[in-house]
Amino acid sequence: MRGWRWQRRSWNGTRAVGGMVLNQVRAVFFDLDNTLIDTAGASRKGMLEVIKLLQSKYHYKEEAKTICDKVQVKLSKECFHPSSTCITDLRTLHWEEAIQETKGGAANRILAEECYFLWKSTRLQHMILAEDVKAMLTELRKEVRLLLLTNGDCQTQREKIEACACQSYFDAIVVGGEQKEEKPSPSIFYYCCSLLGVQPGDCVMVGDTLETDIQGGLNAGLKATVWINKNGIMPLKSSPMPHYIISSVLELPAVLQSIDCTVNMSA
Predict the structure, then answer these.
(1) Strand partners, 127
(2) If you read the UniProt record, what top EC class would you report for this enzyme, in one word (predicted)?
(3) Does residue 176 sit within a domain?
(4) 48 and 135 co-located in one domain
(5) DSSP E strand boundaries for the chain
(6) Residue 49 falls within a domain, yes or no?
(7) Does 147 share its domain with 224?
(8) pLDDT of 74-96, one tens digit each?
(9) Structural domain span for residue 64
(10) What is the DSSP code string of 114-181?
(11) For 114-130, what is each residue's pLDDT tens digit?
């Protein structure tokens, strides 16, 4: 397997990709959260709105931030089983537990629901597909098939997809929660290939998570994997090793051209 390869090519103007010709790459699979949309940033904005609510309406002080911090931890450790509960009940429970752990007393389901729905609606409002990302996807789709491949509960992910209005930019959309297995299982990648009528060796996976996006692409034998490392973090030695690393999805067209040239030269 290749060593770490950094691709940080500069862009001119609006970073358009017009005129690109790709012969060896036939399809690109994109992750959604924190790859195409800033889910983490939208969630932070949702938490800030909840803090404002708790402070202004319920006169909480520092407890407001403590509650939101606790919920964030619970979300990061969340294990969702759709056969036993729905995502709304589970996430409302996160808020209910965080409030009770912080304030004590009896559980307050009504306040928990108010917090949850405010957080959820606010973050959906901020899940936006940026104009430069739309332009990139539009140009790429002139050359290759595009597929959105996202893990997660089907209700949650479909709401995000609807909120950012990205459907028209893809030839197919696959939500892990609607399949038997999610990333990094090879089966979901093979399913994506079948939808587009391509082989794994024709495809590139692009995402921000090494353990799912990159490991899954490697497991399925895709042509290449591209890791979006926005914060320049150094992965653990035991982490999956992507073929390419970029700091923004907008750098992808240059990487795709590099992949295409590399394949052509080795043919």
Answers:
(1) none
(2) hydrolase
(3) yes
(4) no
(5) 27-30, 145-150, 172-175, 203-207, 224-228, 244-246
(6) yes
(7) yes
(8) 999 998 888 788 999 999 999 99
(9) 38-124
(10) HHHHHHHHHHHHT----HHHHHHHHHHTTTSEEEEEE-S-HHHHHHHHHHHT-GGG-SEEEEGGGSSS
(11) 999 999 999 999 999 99
